[in-house]
Amino acid sequence: MEKNNCDNKDNLVKFRLPDTVKPLLYDLYLYPDLKTGLFRGKVNISLEILKETESVSLHSKGLNIANVKVASQPGTFTIEKTYDLLNIKRKDNSKFIPGFDNVEIEFDGDMKNRIVGLYTSSYTTSSGEKRQIATSKFEPTFARQAYPCFDEPNLKAKYKVHLLKPKDSSYIALSNYPVENVTDYDNDHQLVTFDETVSMSTYLSCFIVSDFTHTETSFNNSGKVVPLKVFASPENLDKTRYAGEVGKKVIEYYVQYFQMPYPLPKLVTMNWWNDLWLNEGFASYIEYKGVLAAEPTWGMLEQFIITDLHPVLSLDAKLSSHPIVKHVVTPDQITEIFDIISYNKGASILRMLEATVGEEVFQNGVKNYLNRYAFGNAVTKDLLTELQLLVGNKFDVTEMMDTFTLQMGYPILDVAISGDTYTLTQKRFLKDPNASYNVNETKFKYRWSVPVTYVTNLGKSSEFILFKYNDNQVTIKKPAGATWLKFNTDQIGYYRVNYPLDEWKNIINNYTLFSTGDKTHLLEETFMIAEANQLSYTIPLELTKKLKRRNRLYTMECSCIQYKRHS
Q1: Are residues 149 and 44 located together in one domain of the fold?
Q2: For residue 444, what are the domain limits?
Q3: Are strands 496-498 and 411-418 parallel, antiparallel or unpaired?
Q4: pTM for the whole thing?
Q5: CATH number, domain at 155?
Q6: Do residues 106 and 197 both lie within one domain?
Q7: Which residues are annotated as a binding site for Zn(2+)?
Q8: N or C, fewer C-beta in 10 Å, the chain?
Q9: Contacts of 136 by beta carbon, 8 Å cutoff, 6+ apart
Q10: What is the pLDDT of residues 347-386, one digit of tens each?
Q11: Looking at the structure, do residues 93 and 232 belong to the same domain, yes or no?
């Protein structure tokens, strides 16, 4: 029975599941048919009833619900399309009382003409034959299109998956965990049962049926040897070996870095999508460390500046940007925040945070965080609290990070020089010099607590200076013997710096002495400040004259990007 709730009220709370029930285990059977593009399934969900309730509400979208049982007895159900809700009741309308229960749901759906949920895909062989596969994409809210579930990241549960595949030996079935057993289902199909998983969010579940094959290596998982397989179509199998070699090195690095055995990705998940950046920003940053461990000559941390930092600095300098931590409720709102702000800005401010607290403190804080919230859910403050415990009273980690996560944009520091004294003031940086905004729309009034670093001809500053959001200015003395001073060493901070014209000329004259990171920083920064009409284009153009053939690829690439943008 369907109920299409299309009232005109802004009833956003209905998009969230009630806190009366939580899932414990999905015993899930999926039967995809590669020929017809249709699928059917059955799921038995073990539940813990937390509060007395008349119904169990979970998510379902685009599925035909064929039958529902409660504790093996017939049940009734309604569907609220507006909110993707499936509401299940006992047939006698008696209430669910605190304790343990279960619901069983039979359903079917369509895999064709889609690229989310459970869907069909295909590839063409060199002989022109088209081959069908079934695969899945569930992040952020698409698991509900493959099976009825509690499709919110904080509602984790274990999985026991059974997946149907063609009996043809060339076909395989894959899910999150290894195969437990394979049994004949009928003359043409086999049922593949997988080991029970750890507790994980619905969006992490994964199902594939294909004729792919694999190469195999193994990795050391805290003393235990674990197989690592890389799958591809048969004609592309030779391309998987390098992926396996890199995967082995990267996973072993992560096991050592986090001091925690695999599986890492399912350990800690954001409590709600407001904190998406905590997952995706962290992954976007830590992936560079993994590749650096596998390929130390690739200069991954220098590449980060061009591929992640510079693009988001450009976008985040517009009024159309949004804070990293953004309140979202509906599936459409959730999907919208899977963007450059969550990924690139998230990664960039974590890079800044690591440099500010120190690599060892950052690593230990992350390890403590993962251990404390293992297989659970967390919010931004939880990670920052772990770091604060290690930092002590040196500075307020949460306050500094809140200025970057709770408001959009970032500052530009204007430098005034008197003798050996550098005075810094700050304001919001916007590419449009005529843009206007209300400073009172955030509690920090678009000011930031900025960890200021600098480098001179004598070397890097040993510590950062925290320019707090509620300070009017900070002053820094140029070290004795220093002939020049450049702020934001290797562009580690998420901010810009503008100098008086004479100091820019001094920096240009010493440009060849800077690190690759600083050279790349200065090229991008001068072009962007000039675009905002706060600096003459003469400065970035003079800098480009200093480029030499021996400059690292990243510096030359940055120069090409800026010329292309401003041509």
Answers
A1: yes
A2: 411-566
A3: parallel
A4: 0.91
A5: 2.60.40.1730
A6: yes
A7: 280
A8: C
A9: 117, 118, 119, 146, 205, 206, 207, 208
A10: 999 999 999 999 999 999 999 998 898 888 899 999 999 9
A11: no
